[in-house]
Amino acid sequence: MTPTPQLSLGLLLTASAGFADVVSFIELGGHFTSFVSGNTTQLGDALAQGTWSVALLTGALVSLFFAGSVLGSFVGLLSGPRWGSSAVTALVVASFAATMTGAALGSAPGQFMLFLAAGAGAQNAILPSTGSVRLGTTFVTGTLFAAGQDLARALRGLAPPWRWAQHLLVWSSLLLGGLLGGIGYAGIGLYALLVPALVYLGFFIAFVLHRPTNVMP
Predict the structure, then answer these.
(1) What's residue 131's pLDDT?
(2) What is the largest CA-CA distance in the chain?
(3) Contact 152, 30 (CB under 8 A)
(4) Looking at the 3D structure of the chain, how many domains does it have?
(5) 28 lies in a domain?
(6) Contact status, residue 177 vs residue 16, Cβ threshold 8 Å
(7) CATH number at residue 81
(8) pLDDT tens across 124-153, in order?
(9) Domain that holds residue 203
(10) Within a domain: residue 1?
């Protein structure tokens, strides 16, 4: 089982990712900044149909997500256990700042949202793996499968009886974040992204102030 404090942090990060992805989905007219499976199927369809503008956008979103995951993982490894989470969270905060700056300068959503896709890729490197539940990720397909798998194993006495519920909580947090993101966008448009941005900024400050001190720098 994943300890409750770490699980709570992961749930908040995942909810923030869901919030941002729904805002992006609406702003991009049906494309995603973190749901790479959806973008990939759309890319395949666009290539088949010869819809090159859609293929370019979805391909760029997938590529930037991948680049963000590489950069976030590299920065986390380079910064070490003491500063890794802080450094990766700083990248995510910077992606929100770049996104809002691009929007303010009048860039098209298909341009400034690419920063957010890179930030979404980097987010998955913020929290190290703890217990059996993947924490703070921007995708939950595998998590939902893990919930079903653990429930089946629990029924056979092969897994802790309630571990499957922790996986389901991660899925639920993405759903809740998406719901709040949709409500936020309906109210204040793209400025709704300031909500998850402030959450990530809060995480950055917390990581800096409460970084581990029992590890080598």
Answers:
(1) 58
(2) 58
(3) no
(4) 1
(5) yes
(6) yes
(7) 1.20.1250
(8) 999 876 556 677 788 888 888 989 999 999
(9) 7-209
(10) no
